[in-house]
Every structure is written in C-alpha cells, then in structure tokens.
Specification:
This protein is of the alpha/beta class and 205 residues long. It is 43% helix and 13% strand. The chain has a single domain, classed as 3-Layer(aba) Sandwich (Rossmann fold), CATH 3.40.50. The N and C termini lie far apart (34 Å).
C-alpha cells in the first residue's frame, strides 16, 4: 500500500506535561486538511503495537516526531519509544518502495543543540526547538506542512492558534451536545472522540 499524502504520522510524548502541545499539534494538522495517524487512534487489544506502528507509518506520507522527552524515568531509565518510531519511519523512507521514499519528516526537540548528545546518528539534521510552548509547536508544524493537501496555502500560525483557542472554549458545549463528559474528551482518553469534536468544530467554522 502506498503512503497517503494526507496522512501525518504523529510520534510524540503522551504525558500530562505535553497535553497542551499535543492538542495544539492535533488541531494544526487537522485544521490544515490532513489526517492525524498515531498510536492512540484506536484501541484494539488484538492489534500488536509494533504491527500497528508499521501500518500507520506505511500509510503516512508525512511524519512529525517530537523527541523532547530525554530525561530519565523514576527507575533511572530513558524512554526509547519516540526515537524507535523515528527510526522505523526513516527506515521506510530509506529502504521502502518508490512511494515510501517520497516521505518527509519533521523532527522537534524541546531545547536546541541537545539532539547530537543523545542521538548522534542524526548529526547533520536540523531539528526544530519549541521550548515546550504549544504556540511554538503549532508554528513549527504549520511551517512544515506549509500547504493543504490540495496545494492551497495555509493561514498563518497566529490565525491557527486563535482558532485553536476558540475551539478549546467551544469544546465543553460540543461535548455536551454528544453527551460526552470532560474526561471522555481528553485526547489521551479517547483520541478519536477528540478529533471527531475538532473536525465538527472546523466544519461549523
């Protein structure tokens, strides 16, 4: 199966500290006319995580990788999931079919100049630094996407963030109309419901 130019594979932290940035990324991708593909999009116990990742990567023409979680856990161990998923995507891009070799990738980090310290194999790449700021995350993602899938230009990052804030203010009412509780519209609880509400907001805008 070829990679769809409308699919954007998202590889980022899934923790409370990152939630505002995660929401900003989801909004920016969707408002730009693309479809978010990430590990949270479905919850099938029969779908082996590695197989799911391979399928999502195979089907996505673009990818966004945020490697901003490099600190050690309470057990004194680093988190390898995000560099691993980046490696899978780059492997598909380097060794895959002609369609897979057309993939493009955005790499983000929290602070500049640190990537070569913990991932020296990527020396020479130019990751974008967001300093943990959701508005900066949205700006970087918007710049990477640049155009809608149909080739039309995207609005500026300031406009996108203004619409994102309006969506956040509208979210309780949108959820209430579908009998969803605040917990049920948490993007980490059910990413599908969250993106569904986001899509409905954009449709009404």
């Amino acid at each position: 199966m070829s990679a769809s130019t409308e699919n954007v594979f998202l590889n980022c932290p899934f923790d409370e500290a990152y939630k505002s940035s995660f929401e900003a990324v989801l909004f920016t991708i969707t408002a730009s006319g693309y479809r978010v593909r990430c590990a949270l999009e479905e919850n099938d116990a029969g779908d082996v995580r590695f197989d799911k990742l391979c399928r999502l990567i195979r089907e996505s023409g673009k990818s966004i990788h945020d490697l901003s979680r490099t600190d050690l856990s309470a057990a004194g161990l680093p988190r390898f999931n995000m560099p691993f998923e980046l490696g899978l995507f780059m492997g598909a891009n380097r060794f895959g079919s002609p369609a897979q070799r057309k993939k493009s990738t955005l790499i983000m980090v929290s602070e500049p100049y640190k990537l070569p310290i913990y991932l020296s194999d990527l020396s020479g790449n130019d990751p974008q630094s967001h300093h943990g700021n959701p508005a900066e995350v949205a700006r970087i993602v918007r710049k990477y996407l640049h155009l809608r899938p149909d080739g039309q230009p995207l609005p500026g990052a300031t406009r996108i963030m203004a619409e994102f804030n309006r969506f956040k203010n509208s979210l309780p009412a949108l959820a209430s109309a579908l009998d969803l509780t605040p917990d049920e519209i948490d993007p980490y609880h059910d990413c599908r419901d969250y993106i569904g509400l986001l899509t409905e907001f954009l449709r009404q805008a």
